[in-house]
Amino acid sequence: MPRLPPWLLRQANYHSPNLAALLPACRDLQSARHELRWIAQHVAKTAQAQDGEHLAQLCQQRGRGVPLQYILGSQPFGHLEVKCRPGVLIPRPETEAYTCHLVDLIKTGRLLGRDSGHGNHGLNIVDFCTGTGCIPLLLFSSLQQSISRLNVLGVDIAGEAVQLAQENIGQNKKLGHIRQLNVGQSLQISRGDVFNDGDIQALIGRPWDILISNPPYISKQVWDHGHGQLGYSVRKYEPRLALVPNNQHPVPAGWKHEDVFYSRLLDIAGVLQPKVVLLELGDEAQARRVLGCYSQHASAEDLAVELWRDWPDLNPDGEDGQFDVMTPSGRGWTVPVKGSGQIRCIFIRRRGE
Known about the structure:
The chain is α/β, with parallel strands linked by helices. The chain is 39% helix and 19% strand. It has helices spanning 6-15, 17-26, 29-46, 51-63, 68-72, 93-108, 134-143, 159-174, 197-201, 220-225, 232-237, 260-272, 284-294, and strands at 74-77, 80-83, 123-128, 150-156, 186-191, 210-213, 276-280, 303-311, 322-326, 332-338, 340-350. Helix 1 crosses helix 2.
């Protein structure tokens, strides 16, 4: 990261030492002013003693790279206010974008048909690696009024994530974002391990419609060294468990360590038989690797696949609407791409749905 020019620091310090303290993280005066306003509002709202001293401490923490969401304690996610704290991954705007797009597809009937969620079993959604619970909370709160029999489950291996997700349910109920649950509706967060066969077996028997996940997908090398792909603040302050697959996870032949969750989640989808699978991933190179391996999967021929970019509901701006993949067997495969921005998700659905 380039050094800040001395004149910029002098200009910020002229206005406020707190503004200057924020510059190393914000990099420009406008961003620093915005963050100073938000932090000051947070201090005033939480009624801290010695507000001036506390404000200065928070600005110094932010300047050292502590994520703003950990300082403020929350992050907007759709119409929700999601609590954030160290030890649990911070929700990203791209995750919000594809979750909102999924909601729109369900509501309009373009995903599962107009009558989805109104049959005997309703609409059942499971989110693995749920973190703050932002994805299941936004799905449930957005669909609750239109789908009478709605059941959403978030699963995470980390106890601190499960606790925070449950707190987020409670907070958004108090804020009125989640209404009183009707008979036949449920929103649950549970502790479970994607790689534990017993935890997955416990989910068998329910007619799952949608499986969604933002799993760990960062390589060990990128985590250790950054290489311009992962910021210092993320590597220093956000949980490795949520970003990098554990060394103990078995890596199937043909897969890379950073892609191991996709291999496992595709196997889980084969067991749970959801109608739709939506998996967030890191970049185009990872999409190419995962799709190449997925082409060898037993269920691949019965499913339709497409890729979503960061903003899947926007028209592409000069971006290619197709993605060419070479399978391990040497066969070419063209996958449609929708939206604008960087490659962000793999979207899989049963043919005919």
